[in-house]
């Protein structure tokens, strides 16, 4: 409308002398350029309005996401804190167990100080205390009868384990890989089981270790400590091991996963 009025006014100027026509033409050209600029500015305004509305919509969505995300982050942090507490508790219990194992090893070695190292070894393996006693100290060859010297050694072990009633005891019999010959034993399985059982009976009947704390197991020749290809290796493999370990119910309680929020 403004443009038409402007052009009409310019047309009315046509009555002026020719010298003014050039000025009118220039003004018309400037008007057209201004119109183009106005159209461009209007297009830019529309684009900015669209962009602004889009940003407002995204901010609104982001606000909702942030509320939900904040709750999710809070639950995640709570779960992490619970898991951290569980790990910290587990670490403390493991340290306590390691300290107990160390104390057991020191007490056992002190009690067995007069026994030769090649006949009895005390060490921690797999989180448990292992007392390994050679068969030449415990039994006669091919026999499951405990010797009098071995009974004294077992008495010293029993004294130490009796002070820790929350621990269980597993007695394992081991042999070399040479098949046993004789009518008393069927095979090395039979020999290893009977030797473990004989040790458990001595601990129970002569040294009053509570029987429900004990397990007797035979491993035959299938868990060697050394190479069965040499006499020295076979001698090391013929042994009875007393494993001092935590009760299974305590072990499973230790491994129970911490409850976490959904």
Automatic annotation (TrEMBL):
GO cellular component: membrane
Pfam families per UniProt: OmpA (PF00691)
SUPFAM superfamilies in alphabetical order: OmpA-like, Spectrin repeat
Coiled coil: 24-97
UniProt keyword terms in alphabetical order: Coiled coil, Membrane
PROSITE patterns linked: OMPA_2
Keyword DNA-binding listed: no
Stretches assigned to the OmpA-like domain: 126-248
PANTHER family to which the protein is assigned, alphabetical: LIPOPROTEIN YIAD-RELATED, STATOR ELEMENT OF FLAGELLAR MOTOR COMPLEX
Name assigned to this protein: OmpA family protein
UniProt lineage: Bacteria, Pseudomonadati, Bacteroidota, Saprospiria, Saprospirales
């Amino acid at each position: 409308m403004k443009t038409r009025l402007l052009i009409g006014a310019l047309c009315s100027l046509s009555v002026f002398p020719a010298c003014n026509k050039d000025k009118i033409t220039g003004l018309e050209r400037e008007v057209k350029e201004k119109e183009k600029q106005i159209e461009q500015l209007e297009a830019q305004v529309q684009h900015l309005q669209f962009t602004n509305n889009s940003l407002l919509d995204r901010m609104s969505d982001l606000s909702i996401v942030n509320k939900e995300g904040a709750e999710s982050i809070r639950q995640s942090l709570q779960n992490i804190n619970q898991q951290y507490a569980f790990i910290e508790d587990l670490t403390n219990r493991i340290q306590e167990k390691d300290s107990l194992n160390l104390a057991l090893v020191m007490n056992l070695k002190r009690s067995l100080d007069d026994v030769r190292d090649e006949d009895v070894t005390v060490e921690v393996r797999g989180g448990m205390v292992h007392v390994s006693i050679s068969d030449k100290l415990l039994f006669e060859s091919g026999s499951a009868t405990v010797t009098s010297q071995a009974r004294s050694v077992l008495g010293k072990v029993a004294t130490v384990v009796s002070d820790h009633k929350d621990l269980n005891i597993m007695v394992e019999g081991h042999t070399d890989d040479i098949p046993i010959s004789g009518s008393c034993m069927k095979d090395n399985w039979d020999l290893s089981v009977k030797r473990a059982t004989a040790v458990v009976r001595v601990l129970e009947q002569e040294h009053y270790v509570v029987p429900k704390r004990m397990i007797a197991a035979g491993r035959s020749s299938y868990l060697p400590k050394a190479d069965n290809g040499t006499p020295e290796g076979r001698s090391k493999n013929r042994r009875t091991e007393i494993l001092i370990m935590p009760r299974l119910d305590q072990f499973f309680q230790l491994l129970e996963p911490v409850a976490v929020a959904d």
